[in-house]
Structure formats: C-alpha cells, structure tokens
C-alpha cells in the first residue's frame, strides 16, 4: 500500500525543504547560526507570565481559564488589542478583533477564506516563507506584488484570468519584512492600496514585527491609511494580522486579526471549524502581561535588538568583500544580503557549515519560483554580540574565498 497515494492533491505543493535538512547540522555547539528567526529568550517576561498564570489558575479564575471559551477570543484581550489598534491609527472595537493561534493561523484561515485553486495571490518576491506555505495548501498561483512596477492592474487581472482565477489579495509585511528587513514608505503603502483598489482585491497586512522599530518614525499601517480615507472600518479591504510572538512570547501562540466585521464573522466560523478557540489560559496570561507595561517591555526589547543590529551592520562593513550588498533594516530581526550574480546561497551554506561552522538561510527559499539564488537571510535577534562579530568574520572569509 502506498499511503501517499491517498493524499489530496493540495499536499503536492507542501514539501519539506532541502535546506531544513542542512540546518539540522546547527545543533552542533560550535556553529554560529544566523539562520534562526526567533526572539532572544533572555527577554521573555517570564516572571510576569508566572504571576499571570498563577492568577488565571487561581480558584476564582480556573473555571474560566481551563474551560472551553468563545471562538472570537477572550474579551479583555480583544479589548486591549482594539485599544492598541486605535493607538496605531485604526480606531475600532473588540468586535473588529479575532484572536488567533499565532498570526500563522490567521494566514492559513485567510488562504482558506479567499483562495480557490488557481486564484492569484500577489506576494513580495521574496516573501515570508510561512505565508507561502500557508497559502500553498489552497493551490493558488503566485504573482509579483510590485505596486511601483510597470505592470498595470489590467495586465495583472488578465494574467490571473488566463490562469483560471482572480487576483484575490496582495500579501505583504510593510514593517521590517521577513526576510528582507525592508520597510515600505508611506507612498509605497498608498500605492499598494491604490493597486488593490484598481484590482478590486483584498490586502493582507502582516504586521508581525511592527513593534520592533529601532530607528526612524512609525509609519501608519495600510489599514490606518485606508480607514482615514473611507471613514468606516467595515468598508475597508485591508486585513491586519498582528502577533505577540515577537514581543511577549511565540510559544503561547497568540495573534490577532483586525478587520471589517464581515471578515471577522466569517473567520470566526473558520476558527470554530478549525480549533474552536485559542487556548484560554494563554489568552488570559497575555492579556494580563500586555496590560502591565507593554510599551516599557517593547522599549527594552528594541534597545537590545538595536545593539545587535548595529553590531551586525558594522561587522558586515568590516568583513564583506566588494560586490556584496545588504539591507539596513530599521527594525525587526533580519538583514538581507545579495551576492554577486551567479553565486549560489545554498552551495555557500554547505561550504560555510563545513569550513567555518557558520549558518544562514539561503534566500532562494523565500521565492515562489527559482529566483534569488544569490541572496541570503541573516538573523540578528538570536546570536549575541560576540557571536555576531565572530560569525560575520567567518562568513566574510567564506564569501571572499568563494569569489576568489
Ligand atoms: N508573519 C511573519 C512575517 C513572520 O515572520 C512570522 C513568524 N516567523 C509569522 C507571521 C508567524 O508568527 P506567529 O504565528 O508566531 O504569530
């Protein structure tokens, strides 16, 4: 019996990557890894979570925290998020908020909500690998999101129709994107919105890193720009996905969607069918911890990660040979590097691990097609400053050697 012959066709696009196999080598203690994308556990507010969990499990509260609860989410947490969205320029109420099990679940549900097989999703080239993974299960066609480019809405629409579907949404992460670290200017955000209006499609705004800004001024979310124009959130086509993973804890799996009520209402049905609701205890703990000094906590995080980013940028300037370029992220966790054309990031990773015990993610993984082979992603939130100096020196040697 071949069990995989029973798998539904949508599974054919969901493959484990070869890179994952290589990255298993990272467990060796002497490897310096820029391949992760995870927060520094030293900054988890563990003490606050211990207290919050104790409160949520106390006699008065355990009947709530250990019980089934509503699919929409824990009301005080939805309320706190609605206030935070209001501060970000999106005045809204708790009924515009759905709590999800991480923003990753929101991406899955949005794929399920909008994509029929053959529909087109416009995504950055490169884009967040986890979004490609989430959307892939719904068998879309991916096309380039490039609102500053020269393909008109009519051309994009015609190509989507020729492929047997419609352009359903643009997906992007406007602040300190994963993997590039790039932030969209106000003008670029307006273009994204204008293009979605012209195409009559939805915008999925992934704000996973929004709180992690190390320099420059906050730029309003695309949803805020649209709401300012339309004056009614229920008329907005932008769907904002937020997360506590990069600020408080990824392990608790708490994210949210802020959107027009018809979108929230339909996603509540998907949530009911998917997992009933997000873990109540975790929602209660996050509500407690978020209400107790969220701003101060994110300021501490930003100071910590800014120092690591600065250290990485300085080390890159010292150690990289001519012909290598990299981004200057204003926040987030990643620097994106472009090697001279013809170099291959996956080959380089094999050499880097073997000769210098340093790791990164080859950039090709973040493209829906075979593009970007000469790129790579470097994470600066996990390694400490000494590891950053040493690891970038090693990487500089590997690249210099490969170019020689
Ligand atoms: N969006 C982006 C851009 C991410 O980088 C991540 C996590 N790596 C997520 C969404 C998912 O995060 P979570 O589900 O933990 O909220």
Automatic annotation (TrEMBL):
Its cofactor is pyridoxal 5'-phosphate. InterPro entries: Aminotransferase_I/II_large (IPR004839), Class-I_PLP-dep_aminotransf (IPR050859), PyrdxlP-dep_Trfase (IPR015424), PyrdxlP-dep_Trfase_major (IPR015421), PyrdxlP-dep_Trfase_small (IPR015422). It holds the Pfam family Aminotran_1_2. GO terms for molecular function: 2-aminoadipate transaminase activity; pyridoxal phosphate binding. Keywords: Aminotransferase, Pyridoxal phosphate, Transferase. Residues 59-395 form the Aminotransferase class I/classII large domain. GO terms for biological process: alpha-amino acid metabolic process. Homodimer. Belongs to the class-I pyridoxal-phosphate-dependent aminotransferase family. This is 2-aminoadipate transaminase. It comes from Thalassovita autumnalis.
